[in-house]
Amino acid sequence: MVKAVVLGAAGGIGQPLSLLLKCNPLITELSLYDIVNTPGVAADLSHIATPAKVAGFLPPDEGLAKALTGAQVVIIPAGVPRKPGMTRDDLFKINAGIVEGLATGIATTAPKAFVLVISNPVNSTVPIVVEVFKKHNVFDPKRIFGVTTLDVVRASTFVAEIVGDLSKAPDVVVPVVGGHSGVTIVPLLSQSSHPLPSGFSEEKFDALVNRIQFGGDEVVKAKDGAGSATLSMAYAGAEFALKVVNALKGQKGIIAPSFVHLSADPAGGEALKKEIGADLEYFSAPVELGPDGVVKINPLGKITDAEKKLVEAAVPDLTKNIQTGIAFTKKSNL
Hints:
6-stranded parallel β-sheet, 3-stranded antiparallel β-sheet, 45% helix, oxidoreductase, Lactate_DH/Glyco_Ohase_4_C, NAD(P)-bd_dom_sf
């Protein structure tokens, strides 16, 4: 029996994410929460012929607590999308309070659940969730994840396009490390399961890296003020949730990049800090998953000089983003 909860289930990411989770035969109960429309979304999804029993909750009558009771996997896509001209700092000011409130609900009702944070900016919202859990004395670094899977999905797709065969996209594996915004996104293209064509120029390499790092901007611009990457993010969120559920049910050898607190694996975390040359508390690295969450934080491995420069460029922004999230909860009266 697996109960999954989506917090922000009526939004642009939440609805397609909930649909994909309802289609996952491993999920037996799906609980949806948002400030509006969740009963309708739940009723609609409940007609789909898959095992998950669906229920929708609103804030009145302890709706959040009811949604979270008995949860094993909680996914948070709640918050506002990024609009044209909006910086991630602007986004943070709005979404930070939303995430803090939801994290409080999880910490008090389902502290043992795996928490998958999608709400942007992930580099700052994951530290908020962690600090809330610390305040409630329920923090387990093995169970809190920043979902960076969209960067991996984009890298796989774009490499398949360059290779000239999109049918290979599902099989292309490109580790993406660092964080989940702009220059903090570091694709390790040298480790791609499908190598780039021989003679791939430095200029084309830089363009590919930039497209992976700023793919979100491409979508925001194309939607012309009508939203951000919702459908691809929902797909990526469901993919990572599937890995977590499979690990929860005992499948071995599942590895996926995720933005985690490096104390989740102290030995692996310390080794990673030496690799990146910075004493960061959080980093997105290939993480091995198990029934209790993080089993191991894997090293970056052999990377090129160009990739080392990308890692170096990511560290200052990552440091600032992490500190922003921590500082927010310190100021809070929670």
